Amino acid sequence: MYPGVTMHHLSDLPAAEELRVFAEMGWQGVEMSCGRIAEIVKAENPEKAADDFRAAAADVGLQTPQVHLLMGANLATADDARREADLATAMREAELAARAGVEIGVIHPAGDRPDTLAELDAEEARRIQTFARLVAHTAQFGMSIAVENTYDGKLEGTAAHGERRFGSIIPELHGLIDAVDHPSFGICLDTGHSHLMGISMAESVRQCGDRLIATHLDDNNRTADQHVCPFYGGVDWVEGTAALREIGYEGIFNFEIGGGGPDTPDEIRLPRLRYALKIANWLLSE
C-alpha cells in the first residue's frame, strides 16, 4: 500500500500544479476527483487534456490509479432519459480517465426509493443491466469499475425497503458483482460510510475480500458523513489497516477527506495536507 489523496483540495490551481504540490509533499498517489475529470471532459480538446494530465503525473512521479466518476450518477433510476444520460457521461469520463493513465473508475450504486416490491425488483434489474454495460465498455480500454458502499441515514417519505439505500452493506455489492459477472468489476470501500452503518473498518475490509480494488478512507463521529481525517472520528484505524494487510490489499491507501475551499489560505490547507500524510505514513508503517 502507498499513501494517496483525492484531488479536491487545490481545485483553484491547474491540475498539473496540484499534482506537483502533492508530489513535493511526499504523497505517492492521487485519486482524480470528479471535478478534475469533469474539467477534462469540458476542455476544448478533451483528448489533449487527458494526455497532459498523464504527462504531468508522470513528470512528478505520482501514481493515478483511480478516478471518482460522475457524482450523483443514478444508473438504476426508472427515469430512462436520466439513466442513459448518466451512463453516457460515466462512459465518456472513464474513456478519458483511462487515457489520462487511470485504471479504476469509482461510482455509486444509486437508485430511487421504489414504493412497491415489484418496482424494487425492476430497479435491481435496471442496475444490473446498466452496470453490465458500463463495465463491458470500460474493460475495452483496460479500466475496471469499483462500486462504492453507501449508507442509509435518515430518509424522508416511505419506500418498499424502508429507510434504506442500496449498497449500504457490502453483501449487496457482492450480489451486484455476482449478477454482472465480469472480472473488471470490484468494490471501493468508503470507511466513513461503513462507520455510519455501525460496521467496523476491519469487518468491512474482510467482507470486501479480494474484490476490494479501491479505497476512500475517511472518518466521522457517526452524526454525519463528515469525511474528516483519520483519528478525528470513531473508526479503528489500526485494526482496519491491519485488515487491509490481512486480505492482501496492495493498492492506494487513499484519503478522501474534506479540505478548505479555494478561499482558504495556503497557510491553513497545506499544513493540513502535510499532517494527513503523516497520519497515512504512520498507519502504513505499523
Describe this structure in words.
The structure is a single chain. The chain is an alpha/beta fold. The chain has one domain (about 1-285): TIM Barrel, CATH 3.20.20. The chain contains 10 helices and 8 strands. The chain has an 8-stranded parallel beta sheet. Strand 1, helix 1 and strand 2 form a beta-alpha-beta unit. Helix 3 packs across helix 4. The longest helix has 23 residues, at about 115-140. The chain is globular, with a radius of gyration of 18 Å. The relative contact order is 0.13.
Strand content: 5-15%
Order of helices and strands: EHEHHEHEHEHEHHEHEH
CATH fold assignment: TIM Barrel
Total helical elements: 10
Question: Largest sheet, described in full?
Answer: 8 strands, parallel
Main-sheet strand order equals: 7-6-5-4-3-2-1-8
Total count of strands: 8
The CATH homologous superfamily is called Divalent-metal-dependent TIM barrel enzymes
Q: Please give the domain count.
A: 1
CATH C-level: Alpha Beta
